[in-house]
């Protein structure tokens, strides 16, 4: 069951299944979708779509109880260059949502 909550502004949050949450943002012309899953290795997956139909995928992974500096960035090997501002935004989003 998917439950959607639309918030004021440019954010939509969807609760997918147990332990997963999805949010959609508008970031300076990019559509950013996030999916957070909670397990032993927490991860937030990011899909970034540009106005020119280019899609990038990456994830930030972090083990609960470890310092934030131990988090890792995993980039889909099929991506071309991922926009740095999307990664920078994703890092801030991850720090605020863990």
Question: What's a concise summary of this model?
Answer:
The chain has one helix spanning 84-97, and strands spanning 3-6, 11-15, 20-27, 30-37, 41-49, 55-63, 72-75. The chain has 98 residues and is mainly β.
Describe the structure.
This protein is mostly beta strands and 98 residues long. The protein has one domain (3-97). It contains one helix and seven strands, in the order E-E-E-E-E-E-E-H. It has one helix spanning 84-97, and strands at residues 3-6, 11-15, 20-27, 30-37, 41-49, 55-63, 72-75. Strands 1-2-3-4-5-6-7 form a seven-stranded antiparallel β-sheet, with helices on one face. A hairpin with a 5-residue loop joins strand 5 (41-49) and strand 6. The two termini are 24 Å apart.
> What is the spatial order of strands in the main beta sheet?
1-2-3-4-5-6-7
What's the total number of strands?
A: 7
Question: How many helices in DSSP terms?
Answer: 1
The class by helix and strand makeup works out as: mainly beta
State which percent range the strand residues make up.
Answer: over 45%
**Average pLDDT score:** 75
Helix content: 10-25%
**Shape by Cα distribution:** globular
Q: Give the ordered list of helices and strands.
A: EEEEEEEH
As for the number of domains, it is 1
In this structure, how is the largest beta sheet organized?
7 strands, antiparallel
């Amino acid at each position: 069951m998917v439950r959607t909550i639309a918030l004021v502004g440019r954010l939509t949050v969807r609760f997918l299944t147990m332990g997963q949450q999805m949010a959609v943002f508008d970031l300076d012309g990019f559509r950013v979708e996030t999916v957070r899953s909670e397990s032993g290795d927490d991860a937030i997956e990011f899909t970034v779509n540009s106005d020119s139909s280019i899609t990038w995928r990456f994830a930030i992974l972090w083990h609960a109880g470890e310092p934030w500096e131990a988090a890792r960035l995993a980039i889909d090997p099929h991506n071309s260059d991922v926009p740095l501002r999307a990664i920078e935004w994703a890092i801030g989003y991850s720090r605020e949502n863990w």
